[in-house]
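Reading is simple: each integer encodes one residue's backbone shape. An example follows:

___
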Amino acid sequence: MRTEQLDHDLAGQTQGKVADQVALDLIFRKGRTHSAFRDLPVADAILQEAVKLATDGPTAVNSLPLRVVFVRSPEAKARLKPTLSPGNVDKTMAAPVTAILAYDTQFFEHLPRLFPHMDLKGYFAGDAAAAEGTARQSGTLQAGYFILALRSLGLDAGPMAGFDNAQVDAEFFPDGRFKSNVLVNIGYGDASKLFPRGERLSVAEVASFA
């Protein structure tokens, strides 16, 4: 919980632009990684809104490389299943939706529209390593924004890395332009199946001031 002094400092410096305690609990303090979900449908409109919120977070030169495929049909799940590590199969097949979060290696094609005040399309087009690094880094940032967006909209998320990227890419992105990064199972979590919340590092272990 915040101290009274911190509340006072924030109120004075941010002109009231601070999330309330309910929002902070929902998105951070009480947010959990779910492996089991209740048998409830997830509306397309909510998933679309989560994507929209994820595009509002900052990325390098407004590159916005995140690309998402929502896997929910039996046919799509059957395509995804062989790419999963054994420990992720059952929970992914049971999840209402699984999002494949990928990044666009040719994000720079959109820069004339997204970052018009500088001509950077040619720079990234001529430097594959820089383009890949920027796409992966900013795409990963957006993956984090997407998970927080899901929580803010009342959904629960189970992000995971236990899958074969090359297989996912061959199956869902055969032209090679998009590269898979993270899978996220999505739904309304079954809190009865959660493990106790893991310990977090202290601020002193994580941060320092230079």
Notes: The chain has one domain: 33-206. The chain is about 45% helix and 15% strand.
